Amino acid sequence: MGIEASELSEFLKITQISVYYENEQLVFITRIPLVFDVELSLYNIISIPIKFVEDGVDSWYISTTTYTYVAITKDRKQFTTYTEKEIKDCIETAIYRICKATQPMIDNNDNTPCELQIFKAPDAFQTGCNINKFPLVRNIYHRILNKNTWIHVGDDTLTISCTDLPKIVRSRSAITILDINCQVFTRNAVLTPIEDISSTNYKDFVPTTKIQNIFNKIPEHIHKYKLSDVWNNTSNIQLTDLHSVSRSLDEIQQMIDEEVIREQSQKHQFIHSNLLKETHKFIIMDFEFSMVKRTSIVVISGAISNSLEKFEVSKLEGRPLLLPIDEKARPMIEKELQVAVKEIKRIFVCKTELQDACLDQLKQSLNSTRNNLTREYIDHYIRQGNKENNIIVVWNGHSDKTILQRLNLDYPMLNITCYDKYFNKNFFIQFEKLSNREIIFEVDIGKFDKTGRLLNLVETHDRVCNRKHKTTYAHDPRLDVEYTKCIFNHVLQKQRYENLIQYFKI
């Protein structure tokens, strides 16, 4: 672009010219923007919903996005972002769209949002993607800006009306009208073309991730849960509006838990006793942790669940917590995380399985979008249901007791162990009230040939439960909570729930 006569039209698009008259002279002041020679590809991020059918139940899912417009370098290693308003302020030339650099260039690394990581590895499954579920109440027709093309979501019957021969292109998820003399009639909408404002054809970027990998990560009970209509009679919803009518998987899990509580309250039917409705609740918990500098605890992850069978186990993930002995608990900063990694490698130098499990979970927690490894979430989970007595149940949980104390969570605790009481390899499951070390219940589970006087969690569970639980990975706190729940309920079948709550009255 220059200042030749033939180029002035393009030149004037990007300049600001002021003219004034002085001393019989016309003075032109021309302001030319400073343009960096960086060529970026601009993408409007549109997340396409996907339908999953299981046991005849249709479920619709969408990946939530952080940015609306992303400008990315050709090598996809750097990017910047724009809002809708900033895009409208850009200047169109014959060759480029020139936009103000309102945001810095950012490296596209493992810490960037899901939609940016897809650009780097379009065929890889991105574990950091935040998936939401929504009910498809009616078909969606999302019009592409300045185009006679609509993205279609749902199942619909189309009727095409043209003054001439129809020129309609229909793909799996898009409808393009090539003739402005045509209209497309659907059950609830009419698609009417306009004169094309833009004649430029842009190449779409569609990742090739295997969608089935995403569905495999979603629990079956989430698939089957039917969301209520939250569209509020909205007649013309677009794909960009779906964030307001969708729910995250964590929100759905909480809705399921609350529905279980509500149903049980309405029917007055409880697994252990009707007293549970009015007075007591038992919450089973487990933490994965390590030590730093001998006295500080690093909480890497955890799991929590109501003792009732209908409640799913919720995993506690997010930025690891540092629990110093004389300071307030806090999320760890980068330098503290580096120290924690070194300590884990040192402590478990001879136990590589534990070392790998801790380091892998530490990485998962840092990359997790869940972020419920907080005092506030744990306390809310314990208190929901408004019971008079909330009791924490742990397996060999003296360390768990210390963690809860440093989180300033003061609840009665029930500890479960399995002990060779008489030195004859005959083991007893013991319920211990941690506040005073009182043994409440003992259940004989028979002989077990083992060196030492304590059975571990897996050994104890396998003696009392024949169910095949879904195994995830070594030392997963969710599986530990599931095993503890089985042992807890096995003992209550023999000792009775009414007898247990006598030890935990206000």
TrEMBL record:
Superkingdom, natural source: Eukaryota
Protein's name in the database: Uncharacterized protein
Origin organism lineage: Eukaryota, Metazoa, Ecdysozoa, Arthropoda, Hexapoda
